[in-house]
Design a protein that fits this description.
single chain; about 160 residues; mainly alpha; A middle domain of Talin 1; elongated; integrin binding; Alpha-catenin/vinculin-like_sf
Length: about 160
C-alpha cells in the first residue's frame, strides 16, 4: 500500500512537470493516477480491517477517501488544462490541486504508520526473542561439545 501511495505521489509530480512542458500527456498521467488510486483503495480495505483498533481503521478509510476526492479534482484540472493549454490560471489550479493531493498522500502514509505501531512492536519483540534463542542454541551446542566444561568432572549433561 505504501508503494502505491508513493506511485501516486510520483505521478502527481510528473503531472505538474507536464502541465508546463507537454500538457497533451496529462490524459495518460490522469489515467495512471486513477488506476493507482483504485489499487490503493482496494489495498486500504484489508489495512483498515486489520488495524489495531476501529478508530485507526476508520482514520485510514477517511484519509484514503480524502485522497480520492483530491485525485478527482486533479484529474478534472488536467482535463481543463488539456482543453486550454496556454491558460495560466488553469495551470495554477492544477499545481494547487497537485499540492493538495501530495499532502493527502502524506496523510494516508501517516495513518498507515499509526496503524502499524503494534505490528512493528511485535516484529521487534519477535526479532529480539529469535536472537536470544539463537544465543541459547549456540551455548547449548558448545556445552554439549564439552568446551564449556569446568576443570572438575561435572558435565553439562549432569546439569541439563
Amino acid at each position: 500500500m505504501v508503494k502505491t501511495a508513493k506511485a501516486i505521489a510520483m505521478t502527481v509530480q510528473e503531472m505538474v512537470t507536464k502541465s508546463t512542458t507537454n500538457p497533451d500527456e496529462l490524459g495518460i498521467l490522469a489515467n495512471q493516477l486513477t488506476h493507482d488510486y483504485g489499487q490503493l483503495a482496494q489495498e486500504a480495505k484489508p489495512a483498515a480491517l486489520t488495524a489495531e483498533n476501529e478508530e485507526i481503521g476508520s482514520h485510514i478509510k477517511r484519509r484514503v477517501q480524502e485522497l480520492g476526492h483530491g485525485c478527482a479534482a486533479l484529474v478534472t484540472k488536467a482535463g481543463a488544462l488539456q482543453c486550454s493549454p496556454s491558460d495560466a490560471y488553469t495551470k495554477k489550479e492544477l499545481i494547487e490541486s497537485a499540492r493538495k493531493v501530495s499532502e493527502k498522500v502524506s496523510h494516508v502514509l501517516a495513518a498507515l504508520q499509526a496503524g502499524n505501531r503494534g505490528t512493528q512492536a511485535c516484529i521487534t519483540a519477535a526479532s529480539a526473542v529469535s536472537g536470544i534463542i539463537a544465543d541459547l542454541d549456540t551455548t547449548i551446542m558448545f556445552a554439549t561439545a564439552g568446551t564449556l566444561n569446568r576443570e572438575n568432572s561435572e558435565t553439562f549433561a549432569d546439569h541439563r
